[in-house]
Amino acid sequence: MTDHPLVGIIMGSASDWETMRHAADMLAELGVPHESKVISAHRTPQRLYDYAMQAEIRGLKVIIAGAGGAAHLPGMTASMTHLPVLGVPVESKALKGMDSLLSIVQMPGGVPVGTLAIGKPGAKNAGLLAAAILATHDALLAERLKKWRAAQTEAVAINPE
Ligand code: RP5
Predict the structure, then answer these.
(1) How many domains is the chain built from?
(2) Whole-angstrom Cα distance, residue 37 to residue 51?
(3) Is the minimum distance from the CB of 15 to ligand 1 under 6 angstroms?
(4) Other beta carbons less than 10 A from residue 105's beta carbon
(5) What is the domain-level CATH number for residue 81?
(6) Residues spanned by the domain of 54
(7) Is the pTM higher than 0.90?
């Protein structure tokens, strides 16, 4: 799904895809056009600058940024665009994602990043949250989102076995 993406999913390394694919899967399930790119704040700073500065003019409405360790990607992206940036702390080997979480969540006042949970749940919820943001101006998407939530509720059995 790459035609006129509304959500840009970016990640610091291809190794983050195993986590970030859950954001992409969620958006695909809800029919939200999106794109996924590897952009590193440290290894490809020019790519980050170009992406963040062009995001609005390209028609993106929300950016989901995932990174691990010294996870500066979401914050640096947010510093260069007024679009909502959702940050996903990728689970790191050394510190289990606590480093990623703290790097992403502790933004200075004035440059917000909406920080999600560490790992897969955070990526999945970033997809849902991006869809919820878009759904405030898209009645059909709002209906799909409500149906998805209702189906989730329906799937929870009352008996544990
Ligand atoms: C971060 O370093 C990336 O977001 C990734 O989570 C982590 C490790 O990257 P690789 O060494 O696997 O490329 O920048």
Answers:
(1) 1
(2) 10
(3) yes
(4) 16
(5) 3.40.50.1970
(6) 7-148
(7) yes
